[in-house]
Specification:
It is a single chain. The strands form two sheets. The chain has a six-stranded mixed beta sheet. The N terminus is likely disordered. The chain folds into two domains: 150 residues, D-Maltodextrin-Binding Protein, domain 2 (3-Layer(aba) Sandwich); 92 residues, 3-Layer(aba) Sandwich (D-Maltodextrin-Binding Protein, domain 2), CATH 3.40.190.10. With 315 residues, it is α/β, with parallel strands linked by helices. The chain is globular, with a radius of gyration of 30 Å. 40% of the residues lie in helices and 16% in strands.
Length: 315
């Protein structure tokens, strides 16, 4: 009797799922086509979806909302100073294209470079070598630039005996460390790895000048020519011993998440007279008196060569 009872329970366990499957099949066969579609949609609706952007590749503040376009620039100023320069531009351009653009300050150069290389940024303002690299590697288009040419000067104290760049081998030079374009351009003139100057990181042109002319912290300094022109009576305290070749200036580039139509709107808006007050701080800080002008991606082609020996930028 015990054996028969056990067998009956076992057969019952098998029969119930089979009967349920048969009933479900029969019910499905009796559904009209639209009902069958609705049932299928209901099943799909509860299936887990794959996110369009993997959060592991983005900083948390960006990954939370990819409907927002992210605008950034190198951390050359304090966060408060950067917000004063760039936040009005983000708000202005948001109104122009009807989409939210937020300015995100990178806390340091490592963060800036890492997130740039990951493609986390949609709109960027920075140097020509970075613009060139993003076009070659991240499908960015260069839109608008500072209108004046871009070159760097190496200055020494006026009464110093140094007359040419090679004499600075082994000496301290104040300026920004690589991958700053000025530092890369100057260091590229020293072909002997054992005879290189030491770059002392000072991320502000005025402070670079003061560290050479007044504080005598360094034997020489690297700063943009446009910035040197703005320093009153600088020719009385320093003299230029070297200038890098002239290049197209710092520029805005836009990534593939910004449509071609919106890129055109952004470019036109930035060079329009209506933008003059919005970009005033930016032009005052980094440009000359020519303001902003249209840029072409082609004029920046090849400038990413300055980054060839910089970690993270190799192809």
């Amino acid at each position: 009797m015990k054996l028969k009872s056990t067998l009956a329970v076992f057969l019952g366990l098998i029969f119930v799922p089979v009967a349920s499957m048969a009933a479900e099949s029969a019910a499905t066969q009796n559904l009209a086509p639209m009902q069958i579609s609705a049932a299928a949609i209901k099943k799909v609706s509860f299936a887990p979806s794959t996110p369009a952007f993997a959060k592991s590749n983005l900083p948390a503040s960006i990954a939370e909302d990819r409907l927002t376009l992210v605008f950034t620039a190198p951390p050359l100023e304090t966060e408060a100073e950067a917000v004063r320069i760039y936040q009005p531009i983000a708000q202005y351009l948001s109104r122009i294209i009807g989409k939210t653009i937020v300015f995100q300050y990178p806390k340091d150069w490592l963060t800036y470079q890492k997130e740039m290389q990951r493609g986390s940024y949609d709109l960027v303002f920075d140097g020509p070598h970075f613009n060139s690299w993003r076009h070659a590697n991240l499908q960015h288009s260069t839109l608008v630039k500072l209108a004046d040419d871009y070159a760097f000067a190496v200055v020494v104290r006026k009464n110093d005996r140094v007359t040419e760049l090679k004499q600075l081998a082994g000496q301290k030079i104040c300026g920004m460390t690589p991958p700053d374009l000025g530092a890369l351009a100057v260091l590229g003139q020293f072909d002997n790895p054992a005879r290189q100057p030491l770059i002392v990181n000072i991320p502000n042109a005025t402070k670079v000048y003061e560290s050479v002319a007044i504080e005598k912290q360094c034997s020489a300094g690297i700063l943009p020519v446009a910035s040197l022109r703005k320093i009153p009576d600088s020719e009385n305290l320093v003299r230029v011993i070297h200038k890098t070749r002239s290049m197209p200036n710092q520029a805005f580039s836009a990534g593939p998440r910004i449509s071609r139509e919106d890129q055109a709107l952004i470019a036109a808006a930035l060079v329009s007279p209506a933008a003059s007050r919005v970009v005033r701080r930016l032009v005052s800080e980094y440009g000359d008196d020519k303001g902003l002008a249209y840029a072409s991606t082609e004029e920046y082609a090849g400038l990413d060569a300055y980054l060839k020996d910089t970690w993270g930028y190799g192809r």
